[in-house]
Every structure is written in C-alpha cells, then in structure tokens.
Design goal:
single chain, 375 residues, alpha/beta, Rossmann fold, Heat Shock Protein 90, 5-stranded parallel sheet, 5-stranded mixed sheet, 10 helices, binds adenosine-5'-diphosphate, transferase, EC 2.7.13.3, Sig_transdc_resp-reg_receiver
Length: 375
C-alpha cells in the first residue's frame, strides 16, 4: 500500500486517482502528524511525502519514521517545489528519502518510479524470505549433525559396557579354569553369555534402525499362537530376573497373523523397559486379551513414569527423557522400532503413564489384517 502525505487536498486527490487507476492501493494523510500515526499502525511499501507542509515538514516526518520498525522496508519519494535547491534535495536524501519528484508532478514519471519501487520491494521481500529459509535449513542441518554425533557417542558407550564386562569375565574365567573350578567356570560362562546377548540385541536394534531408514525392514507374516510366545518370553525373563514378579492377566485363544519374531521383539522391549525403569519395584503386570477383532497387549510397571509432554515424543527416534537419561542407560531406539513393527501390522501402540506411579505400554493388532503389500 502507498501513503500519500500532502497538505493540499487537490494534490492528494489527483495522485490517488492515477495510482488507483493503475491498480495500487492508496492511503492518504494531510499532515505530518496524521502520517506518523498511520505509519505506526500499518506497513506501507512506499510513502509519497510532500516536503513543504505546515507544522511538521516532510523531512521531519522522514527522520521520525526512520526509527519505526514498521517502516524498515518502506521507500520514500519526496515531492518538492521545482525551485528546490541542492541543499533541500540533499537533506531529503539524508533524512531517508530514496528519490524525489518536483511539482507539478509528471504522472508518467511518478508511475514509472512507483512501479520500480514496488518491484524492488517485492524482490527484496523474496530475498529476505529465501535468506530466512536458508538460515532455518542450516540450523536444521546443524541440529541433525549434533544429534548424529550424540547418538554415535551414546551408541559407542552402550557397546563398550558389555564389551568391558565380557573382557573382565573372560579374565576371571581363565583363573577358574586354571583352578579346575567347574562350577565357577559355568557361572562365569553364563555371565559372558548374558553380555554377549546384550551386545547382540544392541547391534540388532542398530541394524533395524538402518533398515527402517532405507525401507528394508522385512516381515515374515503367518498365523501363530500368541499365548505360546508370551509364555516362552515370560519364562526366559523370569530366569534372567528372578526377583521380578510377573503377574499375568487374560489370554488369547486364537491365532494371530503377523511376524512372530517381530511381535516377540516388541513384547521383550516393553518388559525390559518395565524392569529397567522401575528399579524400586519388583512387579510387572502383563495383560493380553482379545477385544472384538483385535488383540490387546499391555505391560504395566510401577516405576518412575513419564510426564505428559515426554509421552508425546517417547516413540520418536533417539528420544530419551532427558532428566533420567544419566540414570538409565539406553539408545532411545527401542520404542521407535516397536512403533514401526506395530504399525506395519496395522495396529496401534500407546502409553498411559503417571510420573512417580508407573507406566503402561500397550499395543493392538487386528486379528485379520488386510493383506499388506509391503510386508
Ligand atoms: P531406551 O530405553 O534404550 O532409552 P526406548 O526407545 O526403549 O529406549 O525408550 C525411550 C525412552 O522412553 C527411554 O529413554 C525412557 O526415557 C522412556 N521409557 C521407556 N519405557 C519406559 C518405562 N517403562 N518407564 C519410564 N520411562 C520409559
């Protein structure tokens, strides 16, 4: 929009008519004061400003608006008497004017100038927009880079921990072998075995992440007995965590269609987290039941719980609750993989949790999913 500032109404009217005829939106002010008030409220692309006005003259108006943020990109054309001397013209430029036209105004020249200013304005706006986008993009790169570095450092640490344990147990094993102490050898071998299994799971998760990224996570779906795999998982979990009390509710008396190993992976992840994030409790409730034409499975713990704002992001890749990330080791990829697996079974995954009281992670899977071309 263009603002015409002139104390002579006849000048305003003639300029306004010509500019509006040429498709420009026009606003008017008949004094410096009125112009300032308008400029405070609205952004103008261009101000056509009469130099000689009673009260505040055009130069004073230009100087005053140079500090307005709303007028940062506004161009000013001064209208001055034909007799204007070099000093006046110079003052016009110093006070912030970009151009001047002498009266009586040659409408053709004025229109050409207005059109040029509009073009420059549009171009500079486009440039600013582009610069903003580029800066945002650079920030986003930087952020991705930072996340990657952080992930590499956490992943190396996570891999190093079981490695160090394995090294230590093997040294102890050597001594037990030398002593021919078979019972201790067996116990230590079991410990090595547990750490190797941990390493194996970590590496498998890392591989899954890259498969998800490249769209290569394959599923081998067939009908299988959910109860059987759940019994088996709980048995193994119980052996590895003899102090934990697993309380099982419900059962599923029909076969479900899916990738047995992948569904098993989700169940193990839920249970492992339920034990890990509840160090002061030894109870885990496991529910499995048929609800209409889907199965519902949940794992409830009585641990640290998760605040609402974190709950929304818990299934994001690499997301870990910052406040507890030092206390509990992890990579923040398990739940992300679980979500991918459940979604690829056309199911849903979710959480109910109260900080300090515990969490319940659940998933549903349709009993008779539509055949999925991707799987
Ligand atoms: P990891 O446990 O390796 O960090 P996950 O993807 O399994 O990765 O979990 C992501 C985050 O969700 C964890 O870092 C933790 O902050 C939170 N979380 C997961 N399960 C629980 C739970 N049962 N109780 C509290 N917080 C949990």
């Amino acid at each position: 929009m263009i603002l015409i500032v002139d104390d002579a109404p006849e000048n305003i009217i003639s300029l306004k008519i010509v500019l509006e005829k040429n498709g420009f939106e026009v606003d008017t002010a008949s004094s410096g004061d009125e112009a300032l008030k308008k400029i405070l409220k609205k952004s103008y692309v261009l101000i056509i400003l009469d130099v000689q006005m009673p009260g505040m003259d055009g130069f004073e108006v230009a100087e005053a608006i140079s500090g307005y943020s709303k007028a940062k990109e506004t161009a000013i054309i001064f209208l001055s008497a034909a007799s204007a001397n070099v000093n006046l013209i110079t003052r016009g430029y110093i006070s912030g004017g970009l151009d001047y036209i002498s009266k009586p105004v040659d409408m053709n020249i004025l229109l050409l100038k207005v059109k040029t200013f509009y073009r420059i304005y549009e171009q500079s706006r486009a440039l600013n927009e582009m610069q903003k986008k580029l800066l945002e993009e650079i920030e986003f790169r930087k952020e991705a880079e930072r996340k990657k570095d952080e992930f590499i450092s956490i992943a190396s640490h996570e891999l190093k921990t079981p490695m160090t344990s394995i090294k230590g147990y093997i040294q102890l094993l050597e001594r037990s072998v030398d002593k021919n102490d078979i019972a201790t050898v067996k116990a230590r071998l079991q410990k090595v075995q547990n750490q190797v299994e941990k390493l194996n799971l970590l590496v498998a998760d890392l591989l899954d992440i890259s498969k998800i990224e490249s769209g290569k996570l394959k599923f081998n779906k067939k009908y299988f007995n959910f109860n059987e795999i759940l019994d088996h998982i709980i048995e193994i979990m119980q052996q590895a965590n003899p102090d934990v009390k697993f309380i099982r509710k419900g059962e599923i008396n029909t076969e479900i269609f899916g990738d047995e190993m992948r569904v098993e992976q989700v169940i193990i992840n839920f249970i492992t987290n339920a034990i890990k994030y509840a160090p002061d409790s030894n109870e885990v409730h496991i529910t499995s039941e048929q609800r209409g034409n889907e199965i519902y499975f949940s794992v409830r713990d009585f641990g640290i719980g998760i605040a609402k704002d974190h709950q929304l992001r818990i299934f994001d890749k690499f997301y870990r609750v910052e406040e507890t990330s030092e206390r509990f080791q992890g990579l923040g990829i398990g739940l992300y993989i679980c979500q991918e697996i459940i979604e690829r079974h056309q199911g849903s995954i979710g959480i109910n949790s109260v900080p300090g009281e515990g969490s319940e992670f659940y998933f549903t899977i349709p009993l008779h999913p539509e055949m999925d071309a991707k799987s």
